[in-house]
Amino acid sequence: MRTPALASASRGSQVAVAAPHRGETTVLALSDTRSPLAEPALLSVQVRRTRATVVLSGELDRDSAHHLVDALASLTGTDQPCWVVDAAAVTWCDAGGLRALAAAHALALTHGRRLRLVNASRCVERLVRLSGLDLRMAEARA
Predict the structure, then answer these.
(1) Per-block average pLDDT, block size 10, for the chain (142 residues)?
(2) How far is CA 7 from CA 2, 16, 74, 135, in A?
(3) The whole model's pTM is what?
(4) 120 and which of 2, 9, 125, 136 could share a cystine (Cβ 3.0–4.6 Å)?
């Protein structure tokens, strides 16, 4: 079994990128911008290019949210009419995560695609609903 290679990423994080397997890539983003005493936030991003799906796991916050947008940007080369973000395993989402979801929606529209948020965890669903982003995503599908 291969071990992930470490590479530097923006915003002071380390990213472990697994070797691609059947059109899928997993990115583990370890954000180190919090207080030195706090545990670093961990966000896992899995891109399934064949299904145009991004699966998130962990904390989607202002320090790690850019990984979501980067993952969706990698789907611009696919011919899938709808991109899917699966947020079932997101354990924390703040305003930065919400901004990233809104930016992801805008990116999809810019490229003539739709964005669907599926299996949203309670924290994601609450923010998306309170902000009205769910209505904007629904309007784009109509």
Answers:
(1) 37 44 56 52 89 95 93 92 96 95 96 95 96 91 71
(2) 15, 7, 17, 37
(3) 0.73
(4) 125
Nearest-angstrom CA–CA distance, 115 and 133:
11
List helix spans (H) across 42-94: 66-73
pLDDT in tens, 24-50: 655 555 444 445 555 656 899 999 999
Cβ contact 41:63 at 8 Å = yes
Q: In what order do the strands lie in the sheet with 41-48?
A: 5-9, 13-17, 24-31, 41-48, 53-60, 82-93, 114-118
One-letter amino acid at 86 equals: D
